[in-house]
Every structure is written in structure tokens, then in C-alpha cells.
Write a structure and sequence with these properties.
By secondary structure, the protein is α/β, with parallel strands linked by helices. 29% of the residues lie in helices and 32% in strands. Strands 6, 7, 8, 10, 11 and 12 form a 6-stranded antiparallel beta sheet that branches. Strands 3-2-1-4-5 form a 5-stranded parallel beta sheet, with helices on both faces. The longest helix is centred in the middle third of the chain and has 17 residues, at 171-187. It is elongated, with a radius of gyration of 22 Å.
Length: 352
Amino acid sequence: MSHVGKKRKTDKTRQDRLYFDTYSDVTIHEEMLADHVRTNAYRMAIAKNTELIRDRVVLDVGAGTGVLSIFCAQAGARRVFAVEACSIAEQAANIVRQNAMEDRVEVIRGTVETVDLPERVDVIVSEWMGYALLHESMLNSVLYARDRWLKPGGVILPSRAELYISPICDPLVEDRLHFWYSVKDQYGVDMSCMWDFARKCIKNSDIAVSSVCVEDVLSHPARFAELDLNTVTVEQLRTVSGPFTCAAFGSAAVNAFCVYFTVTFPCPDKPLVLSTSPFKPETHWKQAVMYLDAPLEVVQDTPVTGEVRMFPSEDSDRHICVRVDFSVGDSKRQSKTFSIRDWNSDTGTTDP
């Protein structure tokens, strides 16, 4: 049954095509490689696991330009299957040849769900993380590769992911809203009636991907979810949720929540952690910022509690929604659901 005004869910084939098309352009690969925190973390984690990689077979899920595959070959892998679904695979093959790695790195064009590898693998490496960790749903492909191609006792790099939340105060948003009260002083025209319209436009349900200043974070982060890539299932990823409790640093107005993630690589000496925290060097993932409809005042040690639930959008399985149920101090419990704009919105395209 169809309903007027209800957006039709994008079919799976179109979702995948739109997703892979975004990785066919040079820009996104330039952004990822230029992210030194991200790329160097993988390089170091692979180098630290040389004993597990040397003379063994590696599968790189979503290989992109093939840089992780080459890192694995440099660490002594006997064979690396670089599986990449979009057309950037052609460039990856050129890069492999340019680095004289074609005897060990084989670029395979296709999705990991459809390719047929000649043997099972000892190690899976993948940079699968999206905004707010789960946006784009590439983790499902890593889990498929784990269940289909990883040998018993094999290694996954990274092997664990954690999600965190903190209340924040974004002063720029409040400045933008106050702007409409200042127009009269500047130009003699009262536009204060625009405040409510501006609030609805700015403090909407979109997840903003932006860098949060440390000074704007109002509490220590609270971990609300952890994923063990060795055991988590696709079904469990349908809803990732957990409670959180924070205590405010001091007097301020909470006007948003910030969500970020870490991933951990197992290493012989100690685990290596790649963090997207606002307290750490910036990455291209930045942080996921979700604005409340109205700010809530806190003082020192005011509790901010609630639960976060992440689940796929009704419009596309590859897009994440985040529902936050929260209370600030003694205030009434509130709920708001957020999402990241889909490719149709970003590109102006529509379903055929």
C-alpha cells in the first residue's frame, strides 16, 4: 500500500550503486589518505602484526586505492586479495603495479559477497567505519567476509569498536539564532520573527558531521556500545544501543549531543586505538553532532542520562538513524531521532 507523501524506500540495488558511485571519484580517496591519523594507525597496526601477517593470506575488504593491501604486502603477506566493488579498483591495480607488488597483491573487482576467492584467509583488514561509525553499513560486508573466508583463529584488523556520547554546547548555533534579533540594530528592520523559523532549520533532525571544540564538551564521554568484530552478527547490528550517564563539568547550556567512536587493533605488545574523540587529533570522520530543540541549563555535576539507539533508516539500509532518549538533571525525559542526509538529498537525484 502506498501513502501520499511517504518516501519510498530505495531498493537494495540502487542503494549499493549510489554508495559505490561515491567512491569512484578521487576526492574521497584523497580525503582518506590525507587523514594521517587514520592512515598511519592502519600502517602501524599492520607493521606491529608482522608476525601474524608474514607468509599468510590477507583479505582487504573495500580496498579502495589498495594502500592497506600494500601495507600488508610490505609486512610480508604471501598473498593479498584486494576486493573493491567500484571503479577505483582500476586505479588500485595501477598503484599495485607501480609499487611492484602484483606478484603478491591481487585486485579483484566486485563485492565481497559475490567474489569467489581461491582460498580462505588468515587475516582480514578493512577500513569500514562511516560517520557515527555505522553510517554506510560496510561492516556487514566485513562480517560476511569473516564468516565466509576467515580461517578459524584468524585475525581481524581492527577487531573492536566502541561508541561514545557527550553533551556539548555549540555557541555558534546560538549566535546564528541571535543574529535575527540584531538585524534591526544593523538595518532598521525587525526580523526577530525569523528566530523560530531559523531554529527549526538549524536545530533539525539532521546529524551534522563537524569538528567539536574541546572547550564545548560539557562532560567526560560515556561509552554506550561496544562491538566485538570476532563475534557480532549482522542481526545484532540492526539495533546498536546502550545507556549513558554523564556529569556536567560546570555551568553551561546543553544544546547538542556529540557521538564519536574508537576502533582497536590487537597488537602483540598492547592494543593500538584509533580514536575520533574531540580530545584527540582530528580525523576526516570528525564527530556526529545532534542538536536539541532547545538548550537545557546545567551546573557542576548535573547528571545527563539516557539511552542511545542506532538503527538503519527506513529509506535506505545504508543510512543510520540515531534516537536519543535523555534527561538533564530533574527535567522531563525527552526523545529525538536524528539521521544523516542520504545520497538522494545530497545529489539532488530522485528515485526513478
